[in-house]
């Protein structure tokens, strides 16, 4: 057994008191991520378009944040600064920066080696200190160590003024190499990097603020104090809202080739960085005579290291046109993974003393509670997969097996809560068998899903046998569980299912390798519209590759945590307090997998969201009535008038096509995505978000409509009509190709149907 209680009590634990206010952390997290969610909803619903969001981003980065930095640099109290803490963070950031940089230079392909090294190193070290970090630090330490808040403003320039320029230099070198003729000299590259750093308003205002600190004697003049405060105070909510806006559509960029890179970068940012920060403070902060202050500063360093990547890294990727998929997807993932890590870390670090029985009961309760919530989410998700008939096709068939394994894991954990308290050996063994087999199966299925995606992508002519995958997904975990029951020795003094069969169970768990990675008018009146059947076919045949890849990625991070836990326990008989945090994280990751599955597959757009939206609209507004043009909003009338007068004929010529919709009828229609692309090409919209808004105004004004009047305008392969009347045809020969398409659907959606 592992003597956890002996290793989780600090020296002189009776003298320790709570050094942070944990009660305010959860409200702070809800505030921050609630505002982020509002920004995401605003962007997702096209209330604010990407072009409009750029203006908000410019305000945040060029006005609000520089004012905030200037204010705090002037007011900074250097007398209370513990300088070993700053040197510790500096060394930790530099270590992670060059570790990521060197590894990238070694393994990356030569054609993009330097740009990857520069951007990946910045990604792993530049934290979202101000928008997300400061509110959390304020909630934790405002009432106990208020001087800790100023460290945020001292640490941030480490990345902005020291490490980022090095990363920019690598990116400039890559641009120089890609030119081929090497017109720019190396001296010019250095000059460009220095100029770019000095032009950054954030860096500029930090320098000006430090100078003003000494000239103004830590006081902002009265005549400019209100002006600076107004800009500085506008930063918090605006920056979080903008962060939500920047997350819209970023996961669509996720591809199979970026999975391994994202795993490594996320691990470096959320696991390696906080550990090194904490260790460096423990080593360098020798001047602190108080053990309480020393441990508090060390814990603060760990929490600081968990702060997610700043959104500005995505701006750098856009500027250099490099690794945008990795940076944007990683920013989203690291932001949402950091929340539970910060909360659990802060909660554990506030406990004065730790009794082993109390901790095991707490771990058991966390696992039990999250299993109930996750089971409800999984029942919903599995129901959606069956009712939408996606379970019949790959890779959704394997995803359903994963969801089933996750459900059985939750059921096993719920049963374990009760059987472990009773002296029923057979019940314990049966429940343990169900729990372990299903839990181990959740480690195997992500790898099988990733393998199936590779096979379906590269070998389209090869028929994948689901039976072999199902046997592997369930048979291998069952075999491992059987071997554990035969060779293991039951531990009678533990209630934790992870150690029920002692160290052999830990060894078996560590052996699972991670996953690889008549007349129709403006609409179709046919009762059996073939175009609608094609739309439904697209929904069913869509493999949702990006969602499956993201599912595998998130579960791989969970597997990494479990592997780290096993290796930590195998090689460390005295694991310590951080190991306990890792155990809580593993419990949440193991039994909360259903929440991830629900988020990715439970809210099916075509089966859940759009039908719910249509029913809600009809319930609220009643049967949609065609309104006179004069009753429409001014913006809608102007858009429709402009389009009808100047652009309708050209648009009709470019994108409207005759498509078969019934046995004897054809309809002149177009795809939503076609109109979106056309609007951008002719300059009526600057981006796809604005194009969708333009199309929605045309639909509201009666210029276009869905062929069955079931969908609002959207940027998808959904058919719309209205620009021309459709015509009848009696030639049934043209019907055959479309019938053949529906009868024999393609293996993968490669383009447009019709």
From TrEMBL:
Residues 656-720 form the DEP domain. SUPFAM superfamilies: Winged helix' DNA-binding domain. SMART domains: DEP. It comes from the Eukaryota. One of its GO terms (cellular component) is membrane. Gene3D superfamilies: Rhodopsin 7-helix transmembrane proteins (1.20.1070.10), Winged helix-like DNA-binding domain superfamily/Winged helix DNA-binding domain (1.10.10.10). Its main location: membrane. Pfam families: DEP, Mem_trans. Keywords: Membrane, Transmembrane, Transmembrane helix. This is DEP domain-containing protein. The lineage of its organism: Eukaryota, Metazoa, Chordata, Craniata, Vertebrata. The gene is gpr155a.
């Amino acid at each position: 057994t592992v003597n956890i209680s002996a290793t989780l009590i600090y020296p002189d634990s009776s003298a320790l008191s709570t050094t942070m206010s944990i009660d305010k952390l959860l409200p702070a997290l809800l505030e921050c991520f609630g505002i982020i969610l509002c920004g995401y909803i605003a962007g997702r619903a096209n209330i604010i378009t990407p072009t409009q969001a750029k203006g908000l981003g410019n305000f945040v980065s060029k006005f609000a944040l520089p004012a905030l930095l200037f204010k705090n640099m002037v007011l900074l109290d250097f007398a209370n600064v513990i300088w070993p803490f700053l040197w510790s963070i500096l060394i930790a950031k530099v270590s992670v920066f060059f570790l990521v940089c060197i590894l990238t230079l070694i393994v990356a392909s030569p054609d993009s080696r330097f740009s990857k090294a520069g951007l990946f190193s910045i990604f792993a070290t530049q934290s979202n200190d101000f928008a997300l970090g400061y509110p959390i630090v304020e909630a934790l330490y405002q009432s106990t160590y208020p001087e800790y808040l100023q460290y945020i403003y001292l640490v941030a320039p480490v990345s902005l003024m020291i490490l980022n320029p090095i990363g920019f230099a690598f990116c400039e070198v890559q641009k120089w190499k890609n030119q081929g003729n090497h017109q720019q000299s190396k001296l010019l590259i250095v000059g460009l990097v220095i100029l770019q750093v000095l032009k950054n308003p954030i860096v500029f205002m930090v320098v000006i603020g430090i100078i003003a600190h000494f000239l103004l004697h830590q006081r902002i003049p009265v005549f400019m104090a209100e002006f600076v405060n107004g800009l500085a105070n506008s930063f918090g909510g605006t920056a979080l809202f903008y962060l939500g806006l920047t997350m819209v559509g970023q996961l669509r960029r996720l591809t199979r080739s970026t999975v391994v890179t994202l795993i490594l970068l996320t691990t470096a940012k959320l696991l390696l960085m906080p550990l090194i920060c904490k260790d460096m403070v423990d080593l360098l902060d020798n001047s602190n005579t108080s053990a309480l202050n020393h441990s508090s500063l060390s814990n603060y360093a760990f929490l600081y290291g968990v702060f997610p990547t700043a959104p500005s890294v995505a701006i750098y990727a856009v500027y250099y046109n490099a690794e945008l998929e990795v940076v944007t997807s990683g920013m989203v993932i690291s932001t949402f993974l950091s929340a539970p890590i910060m909360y659990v870390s802060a909660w554990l670090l506030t406990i004065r003393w730790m009794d082993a029985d109390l901790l095991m009961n707490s771990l058991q309760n966390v696992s039990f509670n999250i299993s109930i919530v996750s089971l409800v989410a999984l029942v919903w998700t599995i129901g959606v997969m069956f009712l939408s008939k996606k379970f019949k096709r790959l890779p959704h068939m394997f995803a359903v097996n994963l969801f089933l394994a996750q459900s059985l894991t939750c059921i096993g954990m719920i049963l374990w809560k009760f059987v472990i308290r009773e002296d029923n050996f057979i019940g314990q063994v049966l429940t343990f068998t169900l729990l372990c087999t299903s839990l181990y199966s959740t480690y195997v299925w992500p790898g099988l899903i990733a393998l199936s995606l590779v096979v379906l992508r590269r070998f389209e002519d090869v028929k994948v046998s689901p039976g072999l995958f199902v046997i592997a997904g369930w048979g291998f975990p069952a075999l491992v569980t059987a071997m554990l029951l035969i060779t293991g020795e039951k531990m009678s003094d533990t209630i934790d299912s992870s150690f029920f069969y002692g160290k052999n169970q830990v060894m078996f768990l560590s052996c699972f390798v991670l996953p690889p990675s008549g007349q129709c008018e403006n609409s179709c009146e046919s009762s059996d519209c073939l175009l609608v059947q094609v739309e439904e076919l697209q929904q069913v045949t869509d493999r949702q590759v990006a969602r499956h890849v993201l599912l595998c990625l998130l579960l791989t991070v969970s597997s990494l945590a479990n592997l780290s836990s096993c290796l930590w326990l195998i090689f460390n008989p005295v694991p310590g307090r951080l190991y306990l945090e890792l155990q809580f994280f593993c419990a949440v990751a193991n039994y909360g997998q259903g929440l991830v599955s629900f988020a990715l597959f439970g809210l099916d757009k075509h089966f859940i969201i759009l039908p719910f939206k249509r029913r809600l609209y009809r319930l609220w507004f009643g049967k949609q009535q065609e309104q006179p043009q004069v009753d429409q909003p001014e913006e809608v009338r102007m858009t429709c008038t402009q389009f009808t007068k100047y652009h309708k004929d050209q648009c009709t010529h470019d994108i409207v096509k005759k498509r078969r919709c019934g046995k004897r009828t054809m309809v002149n229609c177009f795809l939503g995505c076609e109109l979106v692309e056309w609007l951008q090409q002719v300059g009526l919209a600057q981006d796809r978000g604005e194009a969708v808004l333009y199309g929605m105004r045309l639909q509201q004004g009666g210029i276009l409509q869905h062929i069955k009047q079931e969908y609002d305008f959207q940027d998808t392969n959904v058919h719309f009509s209205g620009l021309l009347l459709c015509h009848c045809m009696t030639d049934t020969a043209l019907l055959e190709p479309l019938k053949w398409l529906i009868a024999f659907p393609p293996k993968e959606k490669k383009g447009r149907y019709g």
